[in-house]
Inverse folding.
């Protein structure tokens, strides 16, 4: 009877180690693409943010130049409301 339980324990231990190995392989297979996609997402987000900041700065500069141009044209036309 003791030999029978020892043999069953050996089979169970082998099944457990196979299960653990399969779980680890699946976790690794899932982790690698997940990390890759996360890195790509961060890169894309960073690039998008840089483009947005550049566009914002360009728009602000254009707006300031238009305002200055408008003020200069207003001063040329003899606008003396401030005096």
């Amino acid at each position: 009877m003791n030999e029978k339980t020892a043999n069953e324990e050996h089979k169970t231990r082998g099944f457990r180690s196979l299960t653990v190995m399969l779980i680890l392989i699946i976790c690794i297979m899932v982790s690698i693409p997940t990390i890759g996609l996360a890195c790509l997402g961060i890169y894309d987000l960073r690039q998008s943010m840089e483009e947005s900041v550049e566009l914002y700065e360009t728009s602000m500069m254009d707006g300031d130049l238009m305002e200055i141009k408008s003020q200069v044209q207003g001063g040329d036309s003899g606008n003396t409301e401030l005096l």
Notes: Helices lie at 2-76. The mean pLDDT is 84. DSSP finds one helix and no strands in the chain. The CA atoms of residues 17 and 23 lie 10 Å apart.
